[in-house]
Design goal:
single chain; mainly alpha; two-stranded antiparallel ribbon; 16 helices; 4 strands; about 5% strand
């Protein structure tokens, strides 16, 4: 069965899946930017909680939409022009405060290059029981929070945004580009903070009003975005039937085909997520623009359907996964919750 190769899967993808005319990318960018601006205007004037709360949820989803377009640009899939990919990708990542070139390094080269490969893929990398037991009580508590049903946002914020972008020390080859983009994000944040603070002060007539406008239009939507994208990344790569592999056992086919999934979501939600839940074809070849993923998914399923995981995204499925997938045994290739992980480890030691 391991005669299967990633290249053989790529070969079955229809050529039209790769077509990415500039007008089409610009149309989606313009649409999502227009929705984003409209949401900000609505939030600016909204005061009643029953208006603000749903607008916050919409703003987080719109930030997700912009981010996924930027993610496509970072893969070079949204436009043929590298300059257009960088310029508009940078622009669309700014509201989510992401450092563009740091994202390219961590996401494209590490996550996509070594999906579910132990010790390399850093996104939702599981701990073994022994590694968990070696943690301090505070780190154990953090692990329990981040791997719980409410933990996707805190995990993404700390592991991806903070550790891999903001406080990240880049390798020399990437240092100049990453530091440049780090400063671009910082300048955007300072300007946005000053602008929203001033607008809030003028609107409400108080310093507190300035802080509230900053929180309402920038910080809270951004925090909710982290939770939105964190859940998306989690369900793409964590499930009881998704295996992680030690370095020497890993192959590109295992990582890019078997190491992710196709998740069915409501059509209205896909307005914001741009087919990213069709994650298998995206990992098979990240050069495919998001609107080419449905046709690519069908071609891949016809070729290696038995290796493709496909399921509907439901609250029950999500809660079951976060309850059972806490720690991982790289030898047995099985997930377990905390108590069972300890019992299994002790039983194996006793039998040995």
């Amino acid at each position: 069965m391991e005669a299967r190769s990633l290249n053989s899967v790529i070969e079955v993808i229809p050529p039209e899946c790769y077509e990415n005319p500039t007008w089409k990318g610009l149309l989606y960018v313009g649409r999502d930017l227009a929705v984003y601006v409209a949401t900000l205007v609505a939030l600016f004037w909204a005061e009643e909680w029953w208006l603000v709360l749903p607008l916050w949820i919409i703003s987080a989803l719109v930030l997700t939409a912009l981010f996924i377009l930027a993610h496509d640009a970072a893969h070079g899939a949204l436009f043929k022009s590298k300059g257009l990919c960088y310029g508009l990708g940078q622009l669309m990542m700014l509201p989510s405060l992401h450092v563009y070139e740091a994202w390219v390094l961590g996401h494209n080269r590490l996550h996509h290059g070594h999906t579910v490969r132990g010790g390399v893929d850093f996104v939702w990398h599981p701990l073994t029981h022994a590694e968990y037991e070696a943690l301090s009580p505070i780190r154990k508590l953090r692990h329990r929070i981040e791997w719980s049903w409410i933990g996707a946002g805190p995990y993404y914020l700390r592991e991806v945004w903070w550790d891999k972008m903001i406080r990240f020390t880049p390798p020399r080859k990437w240092a100049s580009a990453i530091r440049r983009d780090w400063w671009i994000v910082l300048v955007f944040f300072v300007v946005a903070t000053a602008g929203l603070g001033t607008a809030g002060y003028l609107h409400y007539g108080t310093l507190g009003g300035g802080v509230w406008m900053w929180l309402k239009l920038l910080i809270i939507p951004w925090l909710l975005f982290n939770h939105s994208i964190g859940i998306a990344v989690y369900v793409h790569h964590i499930a009881e039937d998704i295996r992680w592999y030690p370095r020497h056992q890993w192959t590109k086919f295992k990582g890019q085909v078997e190491g992710t999934t196709i998740v069915k979501i409501p059509r209205w939600l896909d307005f914001f997520f741009h087919n990213i839940f069709l994650h298998v074809p995206h990992h098979v070849d990240m050069r495919i623009p998001f609107y080419g993923l449905p046709a690519a998914a069908e071609a891949i399923k016809q070729h290696v359907g038995d290796a493709v995981r496909e399921r509907a995204l439901t609250p029950l499925d999500y809660f079951r996964t976060v309850r059972r997938c806490k720690l991982y045994d790289f030898e047995q290739k099985v997930w377990s919750p905390y108590p069972q992980a300890g019992l299994r480890s002790r039983a194996r030691a006793a039998s040995g």
